[in-house]
Write a structure and sequence with these properties.
Layout: E1 2-7, H1 12-27, E2 35-40, H2 55-63, H3 67-82, H4 99-110, H5 114-126, H6 135-144, H7 149-158, H8 162-175, E3 182-185, E4 189-192, H9 197-218
Parallel strand pairs: 1-2
Antiparallel strand pairs: 1-3, 3-4
Helix pairs in contact: 1-9, 2-3, 4-5, 4-6, 5-6, 6-7
């Protein structure tokens, strides 16, 4: 089974969804038959390379919400994240455009370490107060996952993976994806949002049943 996941490294629900999906997959008896591919998506492509201001200010300004409501929202997200073993720190979060981080992910995919880099980027952004818009931070995350330092620097500098990022986003648009995380099971079944692990487990079973039905029909 092929599972394609569109997400943004600057999306708090994408990290929570990742944990819930991984929990469901780890408990599934057919997990060894599954191949997971992460795809790029940008929730806010208009962000500057580095945004001077807090997450609270950004959401209040961009969504037009009162600061009190933003604080309640982020508190809720922090609690949901804690339930999955994640320690979100919105006070230390550095807001940055995620485009360079997505290019790093495609370099990582080319070397078979996309999962480690994805985890590193999400943790850096939401738990460690590290800017995912700074080259040095991205290089450190890549090297920690096993990427070559010079190749990582060169790839970020010449933006060789930018077309791949744009292709992912275009494919999401074709599929009608407007928000992330978004999960596609064997291009048969779509699931939106950071669903509970039980919902992911049901989707895995449903997608497998659909594949078996198709296989039977062909014969």
């Amino acid at each position: 089974m092929q599972i394609d996941i569109w997400s943004d490294v600057a999306c708090p629900w994408c990290f929570i969804g990742k944990r819930r999906f991984e929990k469901a997959l780890a408990a599934w008896e057919h997990r060894d038959e599954v191949e997971v591919t992460y795809h790029s998506f940008q929730l806010d492509p208009t962000l500057p390379a580095q945004y001077e201001g807090t997450e609270h200010e950004y959401l209040s300004r961009n969504k037009g919400l009162p600061m009190e409501q933003v604080q309640q929202m982020l508190q809720h997200v922090t609690q949901q994240a804690a339930g999955e073993g994640l320690a979100y720190d919105f006070d230390s979060l550095k807001i940055a455009n995620s485009l360079p981080a997505h290019q790093l992910l495609h370099l990582a995919k080319a070397h078979g370490v996309a999962a480690a880099v994805k985890e590193g980027l999400l943790s850096a952004h939401f738990e460690q107060g590290i800017s995912i818009g700074e080259t040095e931070a991205l290089v450190a995350i890549g090297v920690a996952a096993g990427l070559d330092e010079q190749e990582t620097r060169d790839a970020l500098a010449d933006e060789r993976y930018l077309p791949a990022v744009h292709a992912d986003i275009a494919q999401a648009r074709e599929l009608g994806v407007s928000g992330v995380p978004f999960y596609v099971f064997d291009m048969r079944l779509g699931l939106s949002g950071a669903q509970p692990a039980e919902v992911f487990a049901q989707a895995l079973e449903q997608a497998r049943s659909m594949a078996l039905e198709d296989a039977t029909a062909e014969h």
